[in-house]
Design brief:
The structure holds 2 protein chains of 2 kinds. Chain A is α/β, with parallel strands linked by helices. Chain A folds into 2 domains: about 1-140 and about 290-365, Rossmann fold (3-Layer(aba) Sandwich), CATH 3.40.50; about 145-275 and about 365-380, Response regulator (Rossmann fold). Chain A has 13 helices and 14 strands. Chain A has helices at about 1-20, 40-55, 75-90, 100-115, 145-155, 170-180, 205-210, 225-235, 255-260, 260-265, 285-300, 305-325, 330-340; strands at about 25-30, 65-70, 95-100, 120, 135-140, 160-165, 190-195, 220, 245, 270, 345, 350, 365-370, 375-380. In chain A, the strands form 4 sheets. Chain A has a 5-stranded parallel sheet with strand order 2-1-3-4-5, with helices on both faces. Chain A has a 4-stranded parallel sheet with strand order 7-6-8-9, sandwiched between helices. In chain A, strand 8, helix 8 and strand 9 (about 245) form a beta-alpha-beta unit. Chain B has one domain (about 20-290): ABC transporter involved in vitamin B12 uptake, BtuC (Orthogonal Bundle), CATH 1.10.3470. Chain B has a two-stranded antiparallel sheet with strand order 1-2. The chains are: A alpha/beta, B mainly alpha. The interface between A and B is medium-sized, with 33 and 34 residues. Chain B: GO terms for molecular function: transmembrane transporter activity. Chain B: It is found in: Cell membrane. Chain B: This is Amino acid/amide ABC transporter membrane protein 1, HAAT family.
Chain lengths: ~375, ~290
């Protein structure tokens, strides 16, 4: 009862606000633009600001401008909860994008669900949308899907025994756990399971152990940041000639630059269409959106696009598409429209949501990429 | 056998990085008993400024010199603006001030340089040297060499020069040092400049191996501090030995036990050493001199 009252009051306020402020659509975001998850939140925040600016220059949605309220939660779930409450109660937004990390997303999620405000998360964990919650959606594929994509590729090459070297940061640890949970389904065994700290300077010890483990046919490195670059360099230093798989966490041009084109030669990883924008077929449904985002982001920030900024781009596309289709900026109508998103091409993949799928991507969203001559190429 | 050799090379590479950072702690500690937790930030600044200068088109040696000079200036500024105004405060307060300074420098670096990870080319290429079936990168030799040179320099400075002895005297008793005509203000300024310079030099040498970003300083400071404590705070010999020992313990634990336990093993050894020898392996001899 209390909840309905609040919502009704909120809806009335929103309706009043909308007429008073010459019809603008207020959306909110809480991202980790600083702090330990800044590598995620920084490109996401820049992407959202850029997209809102672009859309308003082009006349907004049906002539209504978008007002973005963006908070920096620094990766702290408590702050994210406060900001989510503030976004809903003070800023009166109709939808929230954000939660760069799984922790912050879970905080925002509970506030958004209580207040029945649609929320699109940018974090990886499957727990965010499984079990399905009515108002919560997410754009990134899950860690588990990345593992599955990698193991599919290994299976095709007849690899049955692998070594893993994982970062102990949140990203690496989560993906390590997910990979070990699904590896059995592909008839692959993990013979060596090593870890490193994200700040370690040398991983030759762990790699020597993996190399000396009997039967290892390939090495998988779930990790983020400088760790995978150092692993790749050490891998070449030790002249290990087994295939090396990296994760989607390092899917950006920066990785090739840091590891060095020579060391990175032959490295495989699951990436998105964003990385191979110039190689997409002219009739690829993702080509227009990928080209547009890449050109705009690189011109605006001077840094190369990465997977994470792409998540924010896709969340914004899904949200604005839903508002346009709903023809209304009422939270319930937006939620219903997001859930009926169908065949929407984003940078990460093609989204088709349903009542029991609030992610809307399958394994085909990932493309198996290999580094050749310092460039990304698609593995057929 | 090549396996053990590879673990040792890995340990020595990492140990040299720790030793270089640990050496940076000694001067300020010797001058004021303050453990400068912004030392890691000096290492970050050394690497980051070198990258920025090099990206702007300067040759690497010049870029490195500028980075070291600028970082020394920042060290002096930190002394003038943060430490000096609090003169007379207890050592613990000063240590807390250095933590504040490190957060400030990190935040400034984040605003100025962004959050990207950067690196610059190794000095003598990336072709690994093969010795007895194991490999080591030429850059590791630069880091080891750098640590040894800085160690010898510091040892000569503290035992053979008047200024070095003045630094030790200031630490022992500031008032007495002033009475015998030592300009303690100058000694403090000098020690911050030297410490920052050594930190920056460490940054220049290790960045091709460890890469750099605005937030790497904290990890450097913690490991360098642990190495310095293990060897004995304030003693260059201790910093050098502590650094290499820590690196080797980590590598051998990762190699023969499990990489999950490598940090734990290192800290257990440090705890044991400090329990039985509270002054660290090489003790704080300077305290006994008067």
């Amino acid at each position: 009862m209390h909840k309905t009252l609040t919502t009704t009051a909120l809806a009335t306020l929103l309706a009043l606000g909308a007429t008073a402020a010459s019809a603008e659509i207020r959306i909110g975001a809480s991202l980790s633009a600083t702090g330990p998850a800044a590598f995620l939140g920084d490109p996401e925040a820049k992407t959202l600001e850029m997209l809102v600016e672009q859309m308003n220059e082009a006349g907004g949605i049906d002539g209504e401008e978008i007002a973005l309220t963006l908070y920096d939660d620094g990766g702290d779930p408590n702050k994210a909860r406060t900001f989510a409450t503030r976004l809903i109660e003070d800023d009166e937004v109709v939808a929230i994008i954000g939660g760069s990390t799984t922790g912050t997303s879970m905080s925002i999620l509970s506030v958004a669900e209580d207040n029945e405000i649609p929320f699109i998360s940018l974090a990886g964990a499957i727990d965010i949308i499984d079990p399905v919650k009515p108002f919560t959606f997410k754009t990134p594929h899950t860690d588990r899907m990345a593992c599955q994509k990698i193991f599919e590729d290994m299976q095709k090459q007849g690899i049955t025994t692998i070594g893993m070297i994982s970062g102990t940061d949140g990203f690496g640890a989560s993906m390590q756990a997910q990979c070990k949970a699904v590896v059995g389904e592909y008839g692959i065994t993990v013979a060596a399971d090593e870890t490193y700290n994200p700040t370690d300077a040398d991983m030759t010890t762990q790699l020597t152990k993996i190399r000396n483990t009997e039967g290892v046919q390939a090495v998988l490195n779930p990790g983020f940041g400088q760790g995978p670059s150092i692993v790749t360099r050490n891998y070449r230093q030790l002249a290990i000639d087994l295939p090396l798989y990296q994760s989607h966490g390092v899917a950006s041009d920066g990785f090739i630059e840091l590891a060095g084109a020579d060391a990175a030669e032959g490295v495989r990883l699951p990436g998105t269409a964003l990385l191979i924008a110039d190689q997409l077929a002219a009739d690829d449904p993702q080509k227009p959106v990928v080209d547009a985002y890449k050109a705009a982001f690189e011109e605006k920030t001077g840094t190369s696009v990465g997977t994470f900024g792409g998540y924010a781009n896709d969340a914004f596309l899904i949200l604005t598409d839903a508002i346009a289709r709903a023809g209304s900026a009422e939270p319930q109508a937006i939620r219903d429209a997001i859930e009926s998103t169908s065949g929407l091409a984003g940078t990460t993949g093609i989204y088709t949501m349903s009542a029991d799928d609030h992610l809307g991507l399958d394994l085909s969203a990932f493309r198996m990429l290999q580094i050749k001559g310092g460039e990304w190429t698609v593995v057929e | 056998m090549p396996e053990l050799l590879q673990f040792l090379f890995s340990g020595v590479t990492v140990g040299a990085v720790y030793a270089l950072v640990a050496l940076g702690f000694t001067i300020i500690y010797n001058a004021s008993d303050v453990v400068n937790f912004a030392q890691g930030e000096f290492v970050m600044l050394g690497g980051m400024l070198t990258f920025v200068c090099q990206a702007a088109g300067l040759p690497l040696p010049l870029a490195a010199l500028i980075a070291i000079a600028v970082t020394s200036a920042i060290g002096v500024a930190m002394n003038k603006l943060a430490i000096e105004p609090a003169r007379g405060a207890p050592v613990v307060s000063l240590i807390i001030i250095t933590i504040g300074a490190s957060i400030f420098i990190r935040g400034g670096a984040q605003l100025l340089f962004g959050k990207q990870i950067h690196s610059f080319p190794a000095f003598s290429g990336d072709t690994p040297l093969r010795i007895g079936g194991a490999t080591i990168l030429p850059q590791s030799l630069w880091v080891i060499g750098g640590a040894v040179v800085v160690f010898v320099g510091l040892w000569l400075f503290f035992t053979r020069t008047l200024t070095g002895r003045a630094v030790l005297a200031t630490s022992n008793n500031r008032l007495a040092a002033q009475l015998v005509g030592i300009n303690t203000g100058f000694v403090m300024m000098l020690s911050f400049a030297l410490s920052a310079g050594i930190g920056a030099l460490a940054g220049v040498l290790v960045t091709p191996i460890t890469l750099t970003a605005y937030d790497v300083g904290l990890a450097f400071a913690l490991k360098g501090f642990a190495a310095a404590m293990l060897g004995g705070m304030g003693n260059p010999k201790g910093a050098l030995a502590g650094g290499f020992l820590l690196g080797l313990i980590e590598a051998l634990t990762a190699g023969y036990l499990s990489s999950q336990y490598k940090d734990a093993a290192a800290f257990v050894v440090i705890l044991l050493v400090l329990f039985f020898m509270p002054q660290g392996l090489f003790g704080a001899r300077t305290v006994d001199r008067v």
